From TrEMBL:
Organism of origin: Solanum pinnatisectum (tansyleaf nightshade)
Protein's job: Involved in polyamine biosynthesis.
Reaction catalysed by this enzyme: N-carbamoylputrescine + H2O + 2 H(+) = putrescine + NH4(+) + CO2
A GO molecular-function descriptor: N-carbamoylputrescine amidase activity
Family: Belongs to the carbon-nitrogen hydrolase superfamily.
Pfam families membership: CN_hydrolase
GO biological process, alphabetically ordered: putrescine biosynthetic process from arginine
UniProt name for this protein: N-carbamoylputrescine amidase
CDD domains given in the database record: CPA (cd07573)
Amino acid sequence: MAEKNRLVTVAALQFACTDDVSTNVATAERLVRAAHQKGANIILIQELFEGYYFCQAQKEEFFHRAKPYPGHPTIARMQNLAKELGVVIPVSFFEEANNAHYNSVAIIDADGTDLGLYRKSHIPDGPGYQEKFYFNPGDTGFKVFQTKYAKIGVAICWDQWFPEAARAMALQGAEVLFYPTAIGSEPQDDGLDSRDHWRRVMQGHAGANVVPLVASNRVGKEIIETEHGNSEITFYGYSFIAGPTGELVAAAGDKEEAVLVAQFDLDNIKSKRHGWGVYRDRRPDLYKVLLTLDGSNPVK
């Protein structure tokens, strides 16, 4: 008798944050439970969900929000929750590592085991998104994690704009890509709306690599006091799940709390991925230009 194909059900959560850790963690837990009730095996919570997106300002006091990875209370709570429900949960947090700081995610397996850490590689710096003040560039490299249900790749927000990151995870065997995110309006330009661009880029990653992709973003207006007055971002949500050809399978709007769920047959997708030839016909010998910034001089 033929073996059953491997089915996995993934979920993306979307909610508005307060600036109170206990409130936000409770909201995340409530929505994880809701996703589990819908059959989800792997559940993605949005980026830095413990509080407001503080990177609108450059303030020394916000470094107090960081905590060390070992013994982190939110990670420990999510470990207990993952074990109770039998689900996988990537947990985004602001990491303090001695005198370094990272935008990080811990991957919690379905038995509560912490499978390891990914540190955000690409750190943005612009009006409203001044992350270089807080975060060192990640030093883990792009990683995949063998969970109970699938081998997954997890990157963070600004990483999602770079096709190299998605490809690196897919080459290491990622069967589903996950991107926790915090993105919305641009304080310096009321006319700039990146939501469709943001979504299409990641749909392209799914289609180019023939893997499903899950993106979780926050909603709501957040005001942060800066040295130049108040800065305000309205986060546009738009969380979604894309299938292996880049098709939209589930999508949220720009204001509401949401729990998105979709099921995929990983063995069927694997066959399609191998048959399509985009890995067979790659030419790494021609890609040395990718090791440069200017198209000619390799980065040393």
